[in-house]
């Protein structure tokens, strides 16, 4: 008979798994997953659109969602939206560039700014910092960079809007270094600005890329002139080129030389100058992300760290997006793949619940094609439809009991107290807030004394979302009122008695969150400082890990 013996079988299996490991390693190596950190109006939307244009993922400018017109980048996203009845558009954009797979995770800004914005940054491997060169470092950029610093995320910097009157470039670098505490290594240097913006000088390649306004084509190549001493340049713009030579000398003397290791460890950022709206300098950023930014790296979990090239699948949920349509209660959990190969229909273990789940109707994100992707690798994001049983920070594996760490909750900065019009709905209110809290839509605190609940958020829209979801999903008509709280800190200590004393003496301002962690609700910055001084045995944390 033709029955293969056991040994043959095991050889085939070994070969298969070796082949699979090879495929996985190759796929991981060509992935780049990043997010954009910027202050509103610095040019994130414009730049996103240009990145998609360069990759060929979209053909027309002016189509990325987030514009005032509210159009979407491609019809595929709208299809997914329709199909799922959920607004997943532009949450994740996947596209190809130079044989690499790029995942661009949206970091909601403007009125959509929320804790999600912070948490998205725990799911990326690098970040692109966009700064309006006329304004310099702004408030939201500072906050987002702090989040990146928690995991030493490598950062590429883009100084945007050089076609306008901007601040002095050296001064900009100075500000980034002193305010954001990160070394700047200029890679390109601007020649003039505003009406006299001539282009950029590439310090590493010794070539000049000439600026031309209004390049809207995907392949809009700009003319390159080799060598800073090229006589053509002196003919074209003698004044600016003299200025450039002086500045370059200064830059060489005063700033850092690009160092890949320092970039990868998050202590140095390569800086590029350009103009997103003119497509100028955008290709250089994409190349920097492909050439320098890291492929998915190992991630810490409770029992060990997990390598992206490991064959068994694993991942964690970093964001839950609810459907705003009251007819559907669906939510989508965004899962970052950390290892192995995700295949549609595969069975995985939901570790917190100890339950097996079949991942069949999974949403994937491709900007360029209509097809639903059937597989995903480390660095990719998949969307799991769920009915409220997933929480931020939940881990999924093929069975191994491990839980990914480093997906924190952030101390809220805005507070509201909740009141309900109909006291009989108290139970629904608590249930609704408990679930919304677990989902990460808002943070819920119950002060030790008093009966009111306090909600905390980092973006004001979060309260509106919660109010409308309480009404639509739980039938609770809640009224939010301003609360005289300015910040919250989670409190921990090895000294149980100190904790109990703290709770007993400050019961109105000591509260428990939805996961049962103790927090202090400070009435002002001074109040927080004094409290910290008075209770030296307690530690006050601005973030807390998923339970
Ligand atoms: P955001 O997502 O970071 O909030 O910024 P967005 O891209 O929406 O850009 C904010 C404004 O800055 C937009 O103008 C945009 O056109 C402009 N902008 C972006 N990049 C550049 C650039 O390189 N040069 C110049 N001069 N402007 C730039 P807006 O008038 O607010 O909106 P729109 O009506 O043009 O869409």
From TrEMBL:
CDD domains, per the entry: RF3, RF3_II, RF3_III
Major site of localization recorded for this protein: cytoplasm
Pfam families: EF-G_D2, GTP_EFTU, RF3_C
Record has RNA-binding as a keyword: no
Domain Tr-type G: 29-297
Record protein name field: Peptide chain release factor 3
Keywords, comma-separated and alphabetical: Cytoplasm, GTP-binding, Nucleotide-binding, Protein biosynthesis
Sequence positions that bind GTP: 38-45, 106-110, 160-163
Entry-linked PROSITE patterns: G_TR_1 (PS00301), G_TR_2 (PS51722)
Family indicated by similarity: Belongs to the TRAFAC class translation factor GTPase superfamily. Classic translation factor GTPase family. PrfC subfamily.
One example GO MF annotation: translation release factor activity, codon specific
Cellular location(s): Cytoplasm
Stated role: Increases the formation of ribosomal termination complexes and stimulates activities of RF-1 and RF-2. It binds guanine nucleotides and has strong preference for UGA stop codons. It may interact directly with the ribosome. The stimulation of RF-1 and RF-2 is significantly reduced by GTP and GDP, but not by GMP.
Domain of life of the source: Bacteria
Signal peptide feature range: none
A Gene Ontology BP annotation from the UniProt entry: regulation of translational termination
GO cellular component, one term: cytosol
Annotated spans, Disordered: 1-21
């Amino acid at each position: 008979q033709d029955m293969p013996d056991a040994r043959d079988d095991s050889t085939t299996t070994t070969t298969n798994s070796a082949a699979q490991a090879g495929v996985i390693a190759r796929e991981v190596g060509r992935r780049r997953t990043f997010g954009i950190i910027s202050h509103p109006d610095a040019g994130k939307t414009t730049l996103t659109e240009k990145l998609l244009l360069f990759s060929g993922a979209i053909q027309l400018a002016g189509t990325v969602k987030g514009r005032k017109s509210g159009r979407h980048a491609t019809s595929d996203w709208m299809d997914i939206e329709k199909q799922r009845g959920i607004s997943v558009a532009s949450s994740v954009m996947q596209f190809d560039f130079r044989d690499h797979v790029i995942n661009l995770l949206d970091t909601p800004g403007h009125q959509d700014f929320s804790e999600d914005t912070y948490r998205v940054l725990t799911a990326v491997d690098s970040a692109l910092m966009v700064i309006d060169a006329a304004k310099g470092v702004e408030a939201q950029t500072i906050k987002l960079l702090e989040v990146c610093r928690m995991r030493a995320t490598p950062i590429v910097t883009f100084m945007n809007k050089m076609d306008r009157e901007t601040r002095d470039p050296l001064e900009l670098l100075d500000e980034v270094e002193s305010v954001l505490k990160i070394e700047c290594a200029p890679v390109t240097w601007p020649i003039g600005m505003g009406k006299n913006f001539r282009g950029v000088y590439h310090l590493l390649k010794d070539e000049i890329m000439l600026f031309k306004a209004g390049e809207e084509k995907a392949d809009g190549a700009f003319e390159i002139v080799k060598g800073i001493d090229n006589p053509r340049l002196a003919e074209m713009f003698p004044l600016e080129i003299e200025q450039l030579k002086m500045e370059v000398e200064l830059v060489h003397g005063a700033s850092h030389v690009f160092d890949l290791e320092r970039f990868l460890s998050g202590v140095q950022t390569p800086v590029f100058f350009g103009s997103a709206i003119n497509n100028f300098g955008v290709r250089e950023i994409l190349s920097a992300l492909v050439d320098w930014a890291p492929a998915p790296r190992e991630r810490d979990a409770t029992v060990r760290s997990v390598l992206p090239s490991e064959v068994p699948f694993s991942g964690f949920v970093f964001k839950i997006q609810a459907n705003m349509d009251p007819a559907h209660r669906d939510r989508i959990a965004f899962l970052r793949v950390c290892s192995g190969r995700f295949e549609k229909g595969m069975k995985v273990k939901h570790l917190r619940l100890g339950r097996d789940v079949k991942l069949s109707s999974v949403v994937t994100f491709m900007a360029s094609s209509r097809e639903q992707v059937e597989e995903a690798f480390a660095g990719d994001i998949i969307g799991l439809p769920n009915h409220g049983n997933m929480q931020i920070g939940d881990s999924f594996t093929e069975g191994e009991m491990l839980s990914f760490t480093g997906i924190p909750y952030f101390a809220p900065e805005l507070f509201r107290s909740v009141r309900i019009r109909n006291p009989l709905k108290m139970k629904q209110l608590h249930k609704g807030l408990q679930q919304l809290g677990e989902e990460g839509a808002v943070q819920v605190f119950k002060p030790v004394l008093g009966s009111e609940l306090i909600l905390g958020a980092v973006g004001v829209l979060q309260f509106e979302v919660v109010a409308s979801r309480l009404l639509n999903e739980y039938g609770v008509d809640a009224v939010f009122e301003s609360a005289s709280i300015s910040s919250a800190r989670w409190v921990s200590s090895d000294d149980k008695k100190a904790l109990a004393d703290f709770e007993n003496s400050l019961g109105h301002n000591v509260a428990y969150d939805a996961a049962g962690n103790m927090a202090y609700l400070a009435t002002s910055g001074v109040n927080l400082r004094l409290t910290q001084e008075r209770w030296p045995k307690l530690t006050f944390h601005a973030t807390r890990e998923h339970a």
